[in-house]
Amino acid sequence: MLSEEQILKAYKKIGQNVAKARKERKISQLSLSLEMGYKSVSVVSFAEICLNGAHFNIAHLLEISKILGVPLNHLLDGVQEIIDMSNIEQLNLDYLK
């Protein structure tokens, strides 16, 4: 089972990936927010850095993928490694018991 810390790391990695893809395409947080149907930049700006627990959900990621023209898996790069590290850490803890 993933810890809250590992889940937060995954959300942060996804936020970083979204920010990177958005910046590579020279799209502002406001423009992306508006394209997603929001009237404020806060949804994107907060989720990109996981401010106050904000994060992108799967519906957001599907929409962002479409808007930015990037494959969904591009936005999830690095998340599997975070999960794998969590599994290794759990195996180590189980072994030490």
Automatic annotation (TrEMBL):
Any coiled-coil regions, as ranges: none
Domain HTH cro/C1-type: 18-75
A GO molecular-function annotation: DNA binding
Span of the signal peptide: none
Top-rank taxon: Bacteria
InterPro entries per the UniProt record, alphabetical: Cro/C1-type_HTH, Lambda_DNA-bd_dom_sf
Protein name, UniProt field: Transcriptional regulator, XRE family
Organism of derivation: Campylobacter lanienae NCTC 13004
